[in-house]
Structure formats: structure tokens, C-alpha cells
Amino acid sequence: MDYNARMDYTELSGKSVLLLGKTRSLSEEEFTRLLRLHGVEWTRTLASEAAMAFEGRMMNPYEQTESARIYAEGKIALHALEPLEEWLCRAIEPNRLLMSLKLSRDQERLVDFLANPYITDELFFKLLGLYDWQNEGFFDNDRNRDVTAAIIGRFYADPEKNHNVQYAMSGLAHLIERYGTDELIGAVAALSPIAKELNSPSERSVAGILDAMALHPQTPLEVLRKLLPSRAALLARREPLVLEAELMAGGEVDELLSQNPTLSAEGRTVLMERFPALIARNAVLSGELFERLREGFAAALAANPSLDDAMQDALAAEGENAVLQSLAANPSLAPRHASALMEAGTYGEYLAANPSLPEGLLEKLYSSEDPKVHARLAANPATPIELLYQLSLDRRFERAVKTNPAFGRHIQTHNIGWH
Fold first, then answer.
1. pTM of the predicted protein model
2. Cα–Cα distance between 369 and 371 in angstroms, integer?
3. 3-state secondary structure of 344
4. How many CB atoms lie under 10 A from the CB of residue 45?
5. Residue 147's CB: how many other CB atoms inside 10 A?
6. With contact defined as beta carbons under 8 Å apart, do 144 and 137 qualify?
7. Whole-angstrom Cα Rg for the chain
8. What is the pLDDT of residue 250?
């Protein structure tokens, strides 16, 4: 049985086919309807005029016997049903289907198509717009639950590995976080349970979905505007920052805006007087801005990841303890300064928190046996896995190791049981 052969199903026009078992991606009614559009009929009993036979799912013993006989005789070809169903779905004329569903208002048929993996994404989104949520939530009735599961299952890669994702309220939020596109997010935002919440916030169960939209870089601008003011704090953290003028007009998230490295020069000028230390720590520094903030905010500047080598040299030369502590933990710390601070012997705790420190220096810090240093190493994603294993044996640092993202990735990659 050659299940992988490429078939020209147009040759079946005017003929009949034998179906053994059940249809898979289409209801029998839809299967019949689509076959007839191509001039094909189907039967469950082998007739002399049958041009081809197809195996579906859940064949009964009689059908299994019939399949074996057809294969042995070789008089007609025997194929898997899925490729035929896929071909029928790919050949659907979208406008005809949409008009048919609009006129019939057949929601069951609509739900069947939404669960069909063979229709295009473009058609899926158009069909989704026709679904009636009956003024209820995503999981408030069986049909809504099926549609929600269809949305998640279609776009979530390998949902089988997280089998609850299709049937949990957090599933849509996870979907947006991991696989969001402007089209998908826009479509979800237009769904009745979300659109209603955007217009009149009251349903806390969809809060995670709105949070995911507020932070996702692909969320369309028109959706972000609808998230104001309920998600202003999250929008103020977006990078790159959008809707800056609208956010600043409210004045409620100015402190958060001053921490956003993508805040515009104009925005920095407005907020500089009130939040100079936050801007010193987070702004993308120019030479002019650095010099402007250096006097009075050197320690905050020393924590800024956009420091270039010349700026680091200038700060290191000041020799102030608070400045050097911030510099030691800065992920953009130049190797020569890392070595100098290591030799000084008093900045190990801050160096141990630096995610860009070379492996050799991290190993040297581990040998210090300083519990404060070890605590920082346990949480540092750059700490070598071998050291994290050693640190996990100490109950003081076990939790920090287990929540270290680098250690978590290692455990998942190597399928190691860890509790």
C-alpha cells in the first residue's frame, strides 16, 4: 500500500471510491459535499465501478478483512484517506465556503472547519470571525471550549508535549507569548471575550492574555491603543517603546518610562529632572549624556549596560566603592576591569552576579568559599553547570540553582529527573 504516492485526484471526477473506516479531518457529510464538488461519489461496499479505495480511521474487522483482500487482489489501488481529505480541503473556494456558512449559520459545521488542520491560516482567521461566542467566555460551554482548543492547537508547536495547554485559560496567553504574530494577536484581540474586556474591563480570567498582548513585540498598534490605560505599566516596559506620548500624557507611569532604554531623547529631557538616577542606569548613553550625569550619579551610570570602554575607564578611575560595586556587576564590564576588580579582592560578590564574566573568573570566585559569592554564583546563568551542581548540594543555595534559567535548560535538554 503506497500511502505516500502523489495522486492526481482530479482523475476521479465522474467515478466512485470506496471508503473503509471513518473520515478523519472532515465529517462524512462534509466529505460527501466536497467530493461531489469534484464529481466524485463514495461507497462503503466494493462495487465493480469503484476506481480506488481509501483507508480511514477505526476500521471494523470486516473492513480490515476487505482492505487485506483488495490489497491482495491488486485490482484497484488502496491508499490512506488523509491525503485525499487534505486535497479536498486545499481545493476549497474560500468565498463560497464563507458565504455558505454565513447564510446557513451552521455553527457546528463552522467548528468542524476550525478544527481542520488542512485549511489555510487565511481561511481559518476568516472563519474564526464568523464564530458566535454567545456572549460567553472561552471555556464557558463545550463549543467555545472546542474553538479555543482549535486556536491553540493550530498554532502551538507540539501541544502534545504540554497536553493541558489547549484546555487551560493560560493556554492562549502562552500561545501569544511563544508564537504570536501580528495576524494571530489581532485575531485573538477581535474575539468576543477579549473585545468585550478591552471595551469594559471586568473579567480577570483573561488578564494573562491581555498582559501577553501588551508585551509582545508583534502586537498591532491598534490593539496596543485599546490596552491603554489598563495595561499602561506593561506598555511602559516595552522595547522598543511605542505610544510614548500617550503614556507620558497620563503621567502615571513616568517612573517606569524613565527606566526604558528606548525612551526618546525628548522623553528623557522631560523626565530627567524627576528621575535622573533611573535614566543614568538605563538610558542608551551618548558621551554628552554620560558627562551630564557623571557628577552625582556615577554609581547609577556604572550599572548601565551601554557603557563603552572609555566611560568604564573614567568611572573606574574615580575609585569610589559604590561605583566599583556597580561596575563589577555590569554585564558590559571590560575584561581588564574584571581582572582588576578580581585582584582587588573586595568585589567578588558583585562580580559573581555578572552574567558576562568569563568562565575562568567564575571558577576562581567559586574557590573563595565566600557564602555571599556562592549565593550570587548560584543565581548567575553564566556559572558553569558543574559548579551549579556543586552549589545545589548546599541547602543555602539549592533554591537559587533550581530557579537558575541556565540550569533549568540543562535539565530539560538532558532529560534529567530533578525535583
1. 0.81
2. 6
3. helix
4. 7
5. 23
6. yes
7. 31
8. 85
pLDDT band at 217 (very low <50, low <70, confident <90, very high): very high
Query: What are 45-92's pLDDT values in tens digits?
Result: 865 678 999 999 999 999 999 999 999 988 889 999 999 999 999 999
Contact status, residue 292 vs residue 283, Cβ threshold 8 Å = no
> What are the distances in angstroms from CA 390 to CA 230, 367, 377, 380, 395?
45, 12, 11, 14, 11
Say which range, 130-134, 239-243, 412-416, has the weakest mean pLDDT.
Answer: 412-416
- Phi then psi dihedrals of residue 56, to 5 deg: -100, -150
Please count the CA atoms within 13 angstroms of the CA of 2 that sit on its side-chain side. Answer: 7
HSE of 143, CA atoms in CB hemisphere, 13 A: 15
Q: Directed axis angle between helix 28-37 and helix 107-114, to 10°?
A: 80
C-alpha cell of residue 167: 484546555
Q: What is the 3-state secondary structure (H, E, C) of 107-129?
A: HHHHHHHHCCCCCCHHHHHHHHC
Q: For residues 384 and 304, what is the distance between their CA atoms, to the nearest angstrom?
A: 25
- Reduce the DSSP state of residue 42 to 3 states and report it: strand
Q: Are 216 and 185 in contact (CB under 8 A)?
A: yes
Mean local confidence (pLDDT), 145-166: 85
Alpha-carbon dihedral sign for residues 284, 289, 292, 295: positive
Q: CA–CA separation, 291 vs 285, rounded Å?
A: 10
- For residue 339, pLDDT beyond 90: yes
Q: Which residues contact 359 (CB under 8 A, 6 or more apart)?
A: 382, 384
Please list, in sequence order, all residues whose beta carbon lies within 8 angstroms of the beta carbon of residue 157, skipping any fewer than 6 positions away: 178, 179
Is omega for the bond preceding 229 within 30 degrees of 0, making it cis? Answer: yes
Q: Please write the tens of the pLDDT for every residue from 156-168.
A: 987 666 667 888 8
- The β-bridge relationship of strands 16-20 and 50-55 is parallel
Residues 47 and 18: their CA atoms lie apart, in Å, by 8
As a whole number of angstroms, the distance between CA 75 and CA 1 comes to: 13
Whole-angstrom distance, CA of residue 34 vs CA of residue 112: 14
In the predicted structure, residue 245 carries a pLDDT above the cut 60: yes
Mean pLDDT of all residues in 228-242: 94
Polymer length of the chain: 419
Retrieve residue 44's grid coordinates: 462503503
Structure confidence at residue 272 as a pLDDT band (50, 70, 90): very high
The H or E element spanning position 197 is: helix 192-199
Q: Which three cell numbers stand for residue 333?
A: 564590564
